[in-house]
């Protein structure tokens, strides 16, 4: 579903957002200082079909329903701002409406495409502070991750972050600083978002391409 022109005009006149990046759908993974390029990151695959309870709950809980930034003309940053649009904090100053056509301005099942660090940081800044999620802490974590790490920012009711890395132990240790309520790893994953709990930090090794999920209540 692409953003309808009328929605884009309406949103533009009622909302300020900080950054605008194109969606990075086909760019190769950045190469880190060791020269290693990660394989393509896991593909987006929403785990519910129309009519399923999970899909219908997301569809009726906000104006955008299930929202994947790769299907919108807007940037990842703009989509993030809309997915959290009903959450009124200092992240997005200025006048804006919390509802669109009587529905909360949000998506409770939202994910960006895979991004490099600067774009992911811009998305995190659009969320700001959300319960245990604090943008300053999360940005500090992103800036400490290996250069070739890729990122997805999303909302699974509350903020979620996916990371694609070949240094899962290092990244998970760093993520603990941001105090996520859930943190697990999915070695060799080929799809996101995940439905099942992955492996804990204990016993994990820095020897494989791994999808990491961090979620804040």
Automatic annotation (TrEMBL):
Residues 19-40 are annotated as: Disordered. It comes from the Archaea. Keywords: Plasmid. This is Uncharacterized protein.
